[in-house]
Specification:
single chain; 297 residues; alpha+beta; eight-stranded antiparallel barrel; two-stranded antiparallel sheet; 37% strand
Length: 297
């Protein structure tokens, strides 16, 4: 993943591949690096892989590096990122067209990856892809992570996280409400804009049900009404508005079935409890020592 032209790594990937369809792209990439590799040439000839393999319904070949890219057309995938070289591929034209490049070594801060599953509102969701956004103003820069999820019934949702705001789960609002400089006009009222800033996509993994605007600066507006949080992303061509509640961290990891993260939370809680107990004990000892001192006087 860190070096897509490493011949030895490509050969090992070919050796451990379970099917010829998976093996052929790695052999082809190894031969592109070293055309004199006799073993790779013989293996490729033995499986009839002299020509590039045709993609199946859920796997395609990256036109940049030849790596296998898994997609979920049944969930509406329209773009995907190659795991090996970071090429961003648009799939709407019937073939994989390269529309950008990302660093494949950059991943999310939180341990949620494309392919993970979670249960929200009683329905199973598949994590399709992840993006990192960077926003800025005249004084500061900040970032947040966003995962696209699609439920088994086809409903898209967006899970976002930042160190300041925590976790939020939002759903696209249809039809798209009207957005002004001061608020978002919803059916049940108006959500007041709290913050507006430019932003850009800085990193990506997985696949998406939309074409990522990796070559544009977005206008991101954050709004709130009651306990619901809304986000509007504006480009020159379209507006996307999503809304939903904050999520308590424990509820999030329960939804993903992450017992390891729940244990970490319990351990942190226990450490804080012990620390508070130690501080109370120290305070009582100090009070007792001061009382004895004054009694002695």
């Amino acid at each position: 993943a860190s070096d897509g032209a490493n011949e030895e790594a490509l050969l090992w990937r070919a050796r451990v591949s379970e099917t010829d369809a998976e093996r052929a792209p790695f052999l082809q990439r190894a031969l592109a690096v070293n055309p004199e590799n006799r073993w790779a040439a013989d293996q490729l000839a033995a499986i009839g892989g002299g020509a590039a393999p045709q993609p199946t319904s859920d796997t395609l070949q990256c036109p940049s590096c030849g790596g296998s890219v898994e997609v979920h057309p049944e969930r509406g995938a329209k773009a995907a990122v190659c795991t090996y070289c970071g090429s961003v591929l648009e799939l709407t034209s019937g073939q994989a067209d390269i529309i950008g490049q990302m660093d494949p070594k950059v991943g999310p801060d939180q341990p949620i990856r494309p392919g993970d599953e979670a249960v929200f509102e009683g329905e199973n969701h598949l994590v399709m892809g992840w993006m990192r956004y960077e926003g800025w103003d005249d004084e500061d820069r900040w970032r947040w992570d966003e995962w696209q999820l699609v439920s088994d019934s086809g409903t898209p949702r967006y899970l976002s996280w930042s160190g300041d705001e925590g976790w939020t789960l939002q759903t696209p609002i249809r039809p798209t409400p009207k957005v002004t400089r001061t608020g978002i006009k919803l059916e049940k009222g108006r959500a007041t804009i709290k913050e507006t800033s430019p932003a850009r996509i800085k990193a990506m993994q997985g696949e998406f049900t939309f074409r990522p605007q990796i070559d544009q600066t977005l206008r991101v507006m954050e709004a709130q009404r009651g306990n619901q949080h809304y986000s509007a992303e504006l480009t020159a061509d379209e507006i996307e508005v999503v809304g939903g509640p904050r999520i308590v961290e424990r509820e999030l990891w329960e939804a993903f079935g992450r017992e390891d993260k729940l244990r970490e939370m319990d351990e942190r809680t226990e450490k804080r409890r012990r620390r508070r107990k130690s501080l109370r004990r120290a305070a009582l000892l100090c009070f007792a020592a001061a009382a004895l001192y004054f009694l002695g006087i």
